[in-house]
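Holo prediction — NAP.
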Amino acid sequence: MQLKGKTALVTGATSGIGQVTAIMLAGEGANVVVCGRREDRLQQTMASIASLGSSVLPIQMDVTREAECDAAVAKAVDTFGSIDILVNNAGVMLLGPIHEADTEDWRRMVDTNVMGVLYCTHAALRYMMPAKSGHIVNISSTAGRTVRAGAGIYNLTKWGVNAFSEALRQEVHAHNIRVTIVEPGIVATELRDHITHQQAKSAIEATANSITQLTSEDVARAILYATTQPSHVNVNEILIRPTEQAM
Ligand SMILES: NC(=O)c1ccc[n+]([C@@H]2O[C@H](COP(=O)([O-])OP(=O)(O)OC[C@H]3O[C@@H](n4cnc5c(N)ncnc54)[C@H](OP(=O)(O)O)[C@@H]3O)[C@@H](O)[C@H]2O)c1
């Protein structure tokens, strides 16, 4: 119960990495605020956490809307008294070549993967800075370190998350706030289901299915490792690939 008394807010806790992370953080005793747009999935996550005997607060919200990010963080603090851990996990990966792109996909990726991280971080810092305590975990990707044709805008967003995270770390470390970037390789989740470019979708599915992919549990354990270190230890970056993934 290493997180007893702490409050963690996890965005994108309705499926995949975020859902398992929320459950694992609760398993360590944290009060967990689970966020996402799909109400039925929020209820599912909430039921799994409640069955562990941990406190859970579901909040239906869209990270692309600043007011909803502000309100979610404020509600977390109202309910549990603090926000100690923010896991910026919500994301979309809408792969496809630049010249054939539906530019709405670009807006969704930038708004979710970049602006969502910025809004939630900004909201959480309002409480973490005066408290002189906190931990912000940003879920990036190997796509934040390795560029691939067909992933340009996803690369752009995750590159942005990495750059932002390091600037943030330099700004807040003196306030006893930790910043961790987690960069998974291919994980078996719903992420690829939303790709609108059919060739790009088939290509990434074929690559993913040719190897033993990471599970959400594999990545959640990395997040748990970073968040359960003593407060003087700041795990800045965790890069985690399936053994069979080359790039
Ligand atoms: N799977 C991989 O191979 C992989 C690899 C590296 C990095 N990642 C990163 O890991 C993170 C989690 O992805 P995943 O693989 O677990 O995929 P996932 O199962 O599709 O989960 C994505 C989560 O993000 C939420 N979300 C999306 N748009 C949102 C919005 N506008 N507002 C609020 N929540 C939103 C979804 O919830 P709702 O739809 O209910 O809102 C869902 O809970 C992402 O940042 C992704 O880029 C994944």
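READOUT: The pocket of NAP is lined by residues 11-12, 14-18, 36-38, 41, 62-64, 89-93, 112, 139, 141, 184, 186-187, 189-191 (CB under 6 Å).
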